[in-house]
Design goal:
With 161 residues, this protein is an all-alpha fold. The chain has ten helices and no strands. The radius of gyration is 18 Å and the shape is elongated. It starts with a helix and ends with a helix.
Length: 161
């Protein structure tokens, strides 16, 4: 209640909208959180992280078109925001756009080549699409980054390689 009152008093404060959004998210109100976080992102038009935070809340509220829009906005603001590329890839895969998902995940990997989650996500999508050779290559890349990555090891083993 106090945060809502503060937002009423200062509706143009990105920080207050951001704080309110985080609290609403913790309270299990993802749609309200997303609206508040998106408002924070609008009030801070150069901050990629604020758009990314809104995207995660939109995804949590099952508002996937809004989540995609916010992720693309985060990438417009900062093309090197690897988590936005990664999450965009996951969202695109979830909505049946495999080739676009692979492209987004490849971008995340180019930006942050030492993050094992990125080639592993690519491996799982490639596997689901039936491209076993490329999936195994991506899983092996994952293991180069993180030799303890059990899911990637399992995928390679499952393929019999």
């Amino acid at each position: 209640p106090q945060l809502r009152k503060a937002v009423e008093w200062d509706p143009n404060s990105a920080g207050l909208h951001d704080s309110l959004g985080l609290v609403l998210n913790e309270l299990g109100k993802p749609a309200e959180a997303a609206a508040s976080l998106w408002r924070a992102a609008q009030l801070n038009p150069t901050d990629a992280q604020s758009a990314f935070n809104a995207a995660l809340a939109f995804a949590g509220a099952r508002k996937l078109p809004d989540a995609e829009f916010a992720l693309r906005e985060a990438l417009r603001r900062d093309p090197r925001h690897d988590r936005s590329s990664y999450n965009l890839g996951l969202l695109l895969a979830q909505t049946g756009r495999g080739p676009e998902a692979i492209t987004a995940l490849e971008a995340a990997e180019r930006i942050a080549p030492r993050v094992a989650d990125y080639p592993y996500a690519r491996a799982t999508i490639l596997w689901q699409r039936g491209d076993r050779a490329a999936a195994i290559a991506a899983a092996r890349r994952t293991l180069e980054i993180d030799p303890t990555h059990n899911e990637a090891r399992s995928l390679v083993r499952q393929a019999g390689n």
